C-alpha cells in the first residue's frame, strides 16, 4: 500500500503524521473544552450538583446583573487606558534606546527584568507602595514634598489606574524588545535616502518608521489587547481578598468569572461569562487584523 | 432507625472492637497554618503508636485554595477520608451530601451535647452529628501596654466598656502635622474579625439581633443595627482613632507597635506571642449597656461520604482520638486554640491564665453565625464598609443595601 504511493503522496502522508500531534493537541486541549464550555454555559452545574440544562437562564441572569456590566466596563477601561499608554511609552523607550550605543545591552536588559518577575510578587510590592504613610512609598514621597496623600487603591476612581500601572510596567520590557526588533528590521537605506533629501526627523518618524513598523505594531496591539482584557494577577493580588474592590472598582471580567466558579462554585454562570469574554476577544482580534491589514 | 442501618451499625460496632488484619492508610486534610500542622503531626504520631496498623497521611494546602479543593475532590470521589472544615461551610457541603453522619454508637449525640460547648450544636442536623471540633475560638482584645503608657492610660486597666474603648483609642491615636495617621488607637481593616464583632457583639449590645433564630431572615437593618455599625465606623469616620485599612492588615500594625488595640480571635495568640519587643495584654471584649457578648467559631473534623469499610473504621478511630481531652490540651498548648470541651477548657489553671483566660471567659454565652455562603456574606460586609468609608453613603443607607443583598443571598440558597 505505502509502496505504491508517489513521492508527493508519501510526503503528504508524513506531513500529516507529524501534523497530527499538534492537531490532536489542539482538538483535545483547545477546541473540545471550548465546545464543552458552550454546553456548560447552558446548564446550572455547580461543584455541588450534577449539571441540568436550563437554556439561556445564565445569560439572562448575567445581562440583568449590574455587577456584570460594571466588570464588563472595567475590562474595557483596562484596555482603553493600558493599550495606548503602554504602546506610547514602550515605543518612546525603544525609539531612543535604538540610538543609544553606550551600555545598550544592559539598559535593554534592565527594561526586560520586570517582565521576568513573578506578577504576584510584583503586585504585592506595588500594593505596599500605594499604602498611606507611614509605610507607603508613594505617599511618603508626596508627604515629604508637602503634597496631600492620595488614596490610590482605596479610591473608587484611582484604584483602576493604580492596579494597571504595574501591569503596564511589567509588560514594557516585552513591548520594547519587539519594537527594537521592528526598528532594526527597517532598512538603513530608507533613512539614508531621506537624509540626503533633507527630510526632518519628525517626517522620517511619521513617513518611514511608523508605516514600516505596522506589522510590529499590529502584533503588539493584538497581543497587548488580549493581555489587558485578561488582566487578573495584579487585581487579584492588589485588592482586598482578591475581590477587585473597593466596590468592584477594579474587578475585571476574568476575576468575576473566577469568583463565580471558585468562590460561588457556579460553573454554569462562570462559563456563560467566559463565552462572552471569548466572543469579545474574537471580535476585537478580527477587527484589529482587518483594520491594520488594509492599505 | 431502619433495619438496614441497625445491621450496619452493629457490624460497625463489632468491627471497631476487633483489629483489622491488614494495614490501612487514611488521608487527613486541613489548610496550612503552622501551629495546626505541627499539632496534627504530633497527634498523628501518638495515634499511630497506639494503632500500629493504621497510617494517617496528612495533607495541607494554603487557605486560599482549601475550600475549593476539598469540594472538588470529594465531589469527584477522591480526596480525604477525614477532613477539617470551617463550620460556616457546612450548609453548602451538607446540601451536596459531602459528609456522612457520625455513627451514634461511636459518637453518641447526647454525650456530645453534654460534653461540648453548646455552639457545637450547629453540627447536629436531624439528631445526627456531622463533625466535631478539636478546638473552638472566641474573640478578645489584645492591647499594647507601651502605647497605653505613652498615652497616659493605665496599662493594667484596659477599657472595660465601649465608651472607655473610644476614649482609649482616641488617646492612643497619633497624627503628624499634616493629619496623617501614624499610630492607630484601634485596628480596623478588611483583613480582620471586625465583621464578627459587629454582628454578634455590637448589635446584641444594642439590643438587636443580626439574624432570625432559624438564620433565614436578616434582622440587622434596624436602629440597633445602625447604632452598632456606627460604633464600628465612627472610629475612623468620626473619632479619627484609626483609619480603615491602616497598614493593610490589623495584625501587621499591631505587630509593628503602630496600633494600640486589636480585637481578634484566640488563633492570633501564637502570632502575637512571637511579636518581638511587644509588651501586650489580653482583656475581654468591652461591654456596652451592661451586655457582654462574643463570637465563637471553629473548624470541625468530618468524614467524607465516600469513606467506607476499613478506612471508615480507621477514620472513626482517628476522629475519636483527635477529639479526646488530651488532644484538646495539646492543641491549646501548640496552636493556642481553645478546647472544645468545657471540662478541658474551663479548668482553674486555664481560666487564671492571663492570655487564655479572657478568651475562655468569652466562650460563655458566645454566639455563632449561621452562614450560607461565608465568602459572599463577607464580601457584603466589606462592600458595606467601603460605601460608608469612601462611597459617601450614610451608615443607615449602606446598612439597608447590605441587608437586602444578604437577604437575597440567603433566599437563593434556600430556594434551590
Structure report:
The complex is a heterodimer of chains A (295) and B (416). Chain A has 295 residues and is an all-alpha fold. Chain A has helices spanning 7-40, 57-64, 66-97, 104-116, 119-129, 137-144, 159-185, 188-196, 201-212, 214-229, 233-238, 253-262, 267-293. In chain A, 72% of the residues lie in helices and 0% in strands. In chain A, helix 5 packs across helix 7 (159-185), helix 7 runs antiparallel to helix 10 (214-229) and helix 12 (253-262) packs antiparallel against helix 13. The model of chain A has no long low-confidence stretch (mean pLDDT 91). In chain B, the strands form three sheets. In chain B, strands 1, 2, 3, 4, 7, 13 and 14 form a seven-stranded mixed sheet that branches. A five-stranded mixed sheet of chain B has the order 9-10-11-8-12. Chain B has two domains: 3-138 and 296-363, D-Maltodextrin-Binding Protein, domain 2; 139-295 and 372-415, Periplasmic binding protein-like II (D-Maltodextrin-Binding Protein, domain 2), CATH 3.40.190. Chain B is an alpha+beta fold. Chain B has helices spanning 3-17, 34-50, 63-75, 90-95, 109-115, 145-150, 162-172, 194-205, 223-237, 250-255, 269-273, 309-322, 325-334, 342-345, 348-352, 356-363, 374-389, 395-415; strands at residues 24-31, 54-61, 82-86, 99-100, 124-125, 128-129, 132-137, 139-144, 174-175, 181-186, 259-265, 280-283, 297-304, 338-339. Chain B starts with a helix and ends with a helix. The interface between A and B is medium-sized, with 29 and 36 residues.
Amino acid at each position: 500500500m505505502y509502496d505504491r504511493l508517489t513521492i508527493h503522496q508519501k510526503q503528504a502522508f508524513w506531513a500529516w503524521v507529524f501534523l497530527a500531534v499538534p492537531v490532536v493537541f489542539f482538538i483535545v486541549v483547545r477546541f473540545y473544552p471550548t465546545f464543552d464550555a458552550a454546553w456548560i454555559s447552558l446548564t446550572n452545574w455547580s461543584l455541588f450538583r450534577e449539571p441540568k440544562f436550563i437554556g439561556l437562564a445564565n445569560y439572562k441572569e448575567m445581562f440583568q446583573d449590574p455587577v456584570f456590566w460594571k466588570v464588563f466596563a472595567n475590562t474595557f477601561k483596562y484596555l482603553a487606558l493600558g493599550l495606548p499608554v503602554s504602546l506610547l511609552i514602550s515605543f518612546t523607550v525603544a525609539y531612543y534606546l535604538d540610538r543609544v550605543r553606550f551600555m545598550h545591552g544592559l539598559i535593554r536588559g534592565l527594561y526586560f527584568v520586570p517582565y521576568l518577575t513573578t506578577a504576584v510578587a510584583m503586585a504585592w510590592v506595588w500594593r505596599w507602595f500605594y499604602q498611606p504613610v507611614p509605610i507607603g512609598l508613594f505617599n511618603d514621597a508626596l508627604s515629604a514634598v508637602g503634597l496631600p496623600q492620595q488614596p490610590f487603591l482605596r479610591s473608587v476612581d484611582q484604584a483602576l489606574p493604580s492596579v494597571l500601572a504595574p501591569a503596564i510596567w511589567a509588560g514594557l520590557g516585552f513591548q520594547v524588545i519587539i519594537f527594537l526588533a521592528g526598528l532594526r528590521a527597517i532598512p538603513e537605506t530608507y533613512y539614508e535616502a531621506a537624509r540626503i533629501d533633507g527630510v526632518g526627523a519628525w517626517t522620517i518618524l511619521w513617513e518611514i518608521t511608523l508605516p514600516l513598523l505596522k506589522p510590529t505594531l499590529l502584533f503588539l496591539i493584538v497581543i497587548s489587547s488580549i493581555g489587558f482584557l485578561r488582566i487578573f494577577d495584579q487585581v487579584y493580588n492588589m485588592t482586598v481578598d482578591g475581590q477587585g474592590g473597593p466596590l468592584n472598582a477594579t474587578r475585571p471580567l476574568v476575576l468575576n468569572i473566577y469568583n463565580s466558579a471558585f468562590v460561588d462554585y457556579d460553573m454554569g454562570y462562570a462559563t456563560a461569562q467566559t463565552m462572552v469574554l471569548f466572543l469579545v476577544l474574537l471580535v476585537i482580534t478580527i477587527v484589529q487584523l482587518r483594520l491594520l491589514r488594509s492599505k | 432507625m431502619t433495619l438496614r442501618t441497625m445491621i450496619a451499625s452493629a457490624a460497625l460496632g463489632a468491627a471497631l472492637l476487633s483489629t483489622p488484619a491488614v494495614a490501612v492508610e487514611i488521608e487527613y486534610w486541613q489548610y496550612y497554618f503552622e501551629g495546626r500542622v505541627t499539632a496534627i503531626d504530633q497527634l498523628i504520631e501518638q495515634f499511630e503508636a497506639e494503632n500500629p496498623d493504621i497510617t494517617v497521611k496528612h495533607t495541607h494546602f494554603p487557605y486560599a485554595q482549601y475550600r475549593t479543593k476539598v469540594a472538588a475532590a470529594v465531589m469527584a470521589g477522591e480526596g480525604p477520608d477525614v477532613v477539617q472544615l470551617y463550620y460556616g461551610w457546612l450548609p453548602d457541603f451538607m446540601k451536596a451530601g459531602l459528609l456522612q453522619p457520625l455513627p451514634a454508637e461511636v459518637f453518641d449525640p447526647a454525650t456530645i451535647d453534654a460534653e461540648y460547648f453548646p455552639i457545637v450544636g450547629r453540627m447536629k442536623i436531624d439528631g445526627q452529628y456531622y463533625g466535631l471540633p478539636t478546638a473552638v475560638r472566641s474573640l478578645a482584645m489584645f492591647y499594647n501596654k507601651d502605647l497605653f503608657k505613652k498615652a497616659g492610660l493605665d496599662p493594667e486597666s484596659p477599657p472595660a466598656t465601649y465608651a472607655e474603648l473610644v476614649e482609649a483609642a482616641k488617646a492612643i491615636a497619633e497624627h503628624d502635622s499634616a493629619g496623617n495617621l501614624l499610630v492607630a488607637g484601634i485596628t480596623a481593616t478588611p483583613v480582620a474579625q471586625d465583621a464578627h464583632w459587629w454582628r454578634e457583639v455590637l448589635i446584641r449590645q444594642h439590643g438587636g439581633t443580626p439574624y432570625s433564630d432559624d438564620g433565614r431572615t436578616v434582622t440587622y437593618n434596624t436602629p440597633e443595627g445602625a447604632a452598632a455599625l456606627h460604633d464600628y465606623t465612627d472610629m475612623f469616620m468620626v473619632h479619627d482613632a484609626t483609619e480603615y485599612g491602616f497598614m493593610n492588615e490589623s495584625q501587621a500594625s499591631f505587630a509593628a507597635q503602630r496600633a494600640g488595640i486589636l480585637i481578634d480571635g484566640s488563633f492570633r495568640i501564637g502570632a502575637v506571642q512571637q511579636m518581638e519587643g511587644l509588651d501586650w495584654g489580653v482583656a475581654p471584649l468591652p461591654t456596652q449597656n451592661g451586655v457582654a457578648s462574643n463570637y465563637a467559631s471553629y473548624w470541625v473534623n468530618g468524614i467524607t461520604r465516600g469513606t467506607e469499610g476499613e478506612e471508615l473504621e480507621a477514620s472513626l478511630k482517628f476522629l475519636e482520638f483527635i477529639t479526646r481531652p488530651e488532644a484538646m490540651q495539646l492543641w491549646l498548648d501548640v496552636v493556642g486554640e481553645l478546647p472544645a470541651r468545657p471540662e478541658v477548657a474551663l479548668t482553674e489553671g486555664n481560666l487564671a491564665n492571663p492570655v487564655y483566660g479572657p478568651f475562655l471567659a468569652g466562650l460563655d454565652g458566645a454566639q455563632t453565625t449561621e452562614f450560607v455562603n461565608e465568602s459572599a456574606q463577607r464580601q457584603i460586609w466589606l462592600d458595606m464598609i467601603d460605601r460608608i468609608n469612601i462611597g459617601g453613603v450614610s451608615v443607615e443607607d449602606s446598612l439597608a443595601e447590605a441587608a437586602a443583598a444578604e437577604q437575597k443571598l440567603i433566599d437563593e440558597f434556600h430556594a434551590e
